[in-house]
Write a structure and sequence with these properties.
The protein has 288 residues and is α/β, with parallel strands linked by helices. It folds into two domains: 11-84, ACT domain (Alpha-Beta Plaits, 2-Layer Sandwich); 131-286, Rossmann fold (3-Layer(aba) Sandwich). The chain is 29% helix and 31% strand. The protein contains nine helices and 14 strands. It has helices at residues 24-33, 58-70, 88-93, 135-147, 163-170, 183-195, 226-231, 233-237, 256-265; strands spanning 11-20, 38-43, 48-55, 81-84, 99-101, 104-107, 119-122, 153-157, 175-180, 201-205, 217-223, 240-251, 268-275, 280-286. The strands form three sheets. A seven-stranded mixed beta sheet has the order 10-9-8-11-12-14-13, with helices on both faces. A four-stranded antiparallel beta sheet has the order 2-3-1-4. A hairpin with a 4-residue loop joins strand 2 and strand 3 (48-55). Helix 4 (135-147) packs parallel to helix 5. It starts with 10 loop residues before the first strand and ends with a strand.
Length: 288
C-alpha cells in the first residue's frame, strides 16, 4: 500500500569502485558524506572488494566520484550508471502476501489478518529498510523467534523500519529501544511502532554511544554493516548483561569468522547461526 512516507524512485545512479578491503570504512564515509542512499560490498578476490553505492541524483554521484578519485579509488569502467525499473511503481504498490518466519507473520496493511497463533507485524512499504523481504531481516527474525527472552530488555541497533523492534515487543519483550542514526527514517520507525499499537518501544536517534554503558540489555539485535559490528563489538557488548545474547547480521557468510572473532575478544561465545547463499546471521552469548 502506498503511504505518506512511501518513496517512489524513478532513476537511481549506481557507481562501483574496487578497493582494498581494509579501506572499506573510508569508502563508506565518502559515499555517506556525498549523499549515498545505499551501499553494498562484494568480494573481489584476495584482499579486495567491489564497493557499490547508489545515489538519487547525478550531482551527488559525480560529487562522490570526484572524492573517490582523490582518495585513489577510481570508479569502475562503467562509470555512473542510471538504473531504472519501469515496473517498480506498480510492483511496490501491489499488495504483498504475508511473510512467515517462525511465529512472526509480516504483513502490509492490504494483506489481511495474520494466521491464528502467529505474531502479526504490519510494515507498509516505505523508505526505511526492513520489510521482511530481505534475507538478513528474515534471518534475524528467525533467531529472534528462537532467543527472545519473555519480559526482557531488547536493543535494536540500526532499526530502520522498526520491524525487529516491533516483533520483539509483540513477541513478549517488556522494553525495547530502537536506535537509528538516519533522521530520514525515524518518522517511519515511529509511525510503524504506533501503527502496530505496541507499548514500551522507545525510538532514539543515534548509535550505541548514546546509550549508557550500564544499560544491561538481555538481547541486542544489530542488522548493520560488518565494519560497525566488528569495530563496535566491545562497546556494544558492554551494554549486554552477562548471559545476554546478541543477534548480528548484515554481512555475507565469508565475514562470519571476522565478526565472531571480534565478539569473542569482547567476551561472547557463539550460540548458533543461520545462512543463505549470500547472507549470514549469528547469535552469541556474553560470558563476561
Amino acid at each position: 500500500m502506498a503511504t505518506p512516507e512511501t518513496r517512489w524512485p524513478g532513476t537511481w545512479y549506481r557507481m562501483r569502485v574496487r578497493l582494498p578491503r581494509d579501506r572499506e570504512d573510508e569508502a563508506a564515509g565518502i559515499a555517506a558524506e556525498s549523499g549515498a542512499i545505499g551501499m553494498e560490498t562484494r568480494p573481489a578476490g584476495a584482499g579486495a572488494i567491489d564497493f557499490v553505492c547508489w545515489f538519487e541524483s547525478t550531482a551527488s554521484a559525480r560529487r562522490a566520484a570526484g572524492r573517490f578519485r582523490e582518495a585513489g579509488f577510481p570508479a569502475g569502467p562503467e562509470g555512473i550508471v542510471p538504473v531504472r525499473d519501469e515496473g517498480w511503481l506498480e510492483a511496490a504498490a501491489a499488495p504483498r502476501p504475508p511473510i512467515r518466519v517462525g511465529r512472526f507473520e509480516i504483513l502490509t496493511e492490504d494483506a489481511g489478518e495474520a494466521a491464528a497463533g502467529s505474531v502479526r507485524v504490519v510494515i507498509p512499504l516505505g523508505r526505511a529498510f526492513g520489510t521482511g523481504e530481505h534475507d538478513t531481516t528474515r534471518l534475524c527474525l528467525e533467531l529472534l523467534d528462537l532467543l527472545l527472552p519473555p519480559g526482557g530488555r531488547v536493543l535494536d541497533l540500526g532499526a530502520g523500519s522498526g520491524i525487529l523492534a516491533i516483533a520483539a515487543a509483540l513477541g513478549g519483550a517488556a522494553e525495547v529501544v530502537a536506535v537509528d542514526n538516519d533522521p530520514r527514517v525515524l518518522d517511519v520507525l515511529a509511525r510503524n511502532v504506533a501503527r502496530n499499537g505496541v507499548r514500551g518501544v522507545a525510538v532514539v536517534r543515534g548509535t550505541w554511544s548514546c546509550l549508557a554503558q550500564e544499560a544491561a540489555f538481555d538481547l541486542v539485535l544489530a542488522n548493520i554493516h560488518r565494519t560497525a559490528l566488528v569495530r563496535g563489538a566491545r562497546a556494544i557488548g558492554r551494554r549486554i548483561r552477562r548471559g545476554g545474547r546478541a543477534v548480528l547480521s548484515g554481512f555475507p557468510p565469508g565475514d562470519v569468522g571476522e565478526v565472531r572473532a571480534a565478539w569473542a575478544a569482547a567476551g561472547a561465545r557463539p550460540l548458533t547461526e543461520r545462512r543463505t547463499a549470500e547472507w549470514a546471521a549469528i547469535a552469541l552469548e556474553m560470558e563476561r
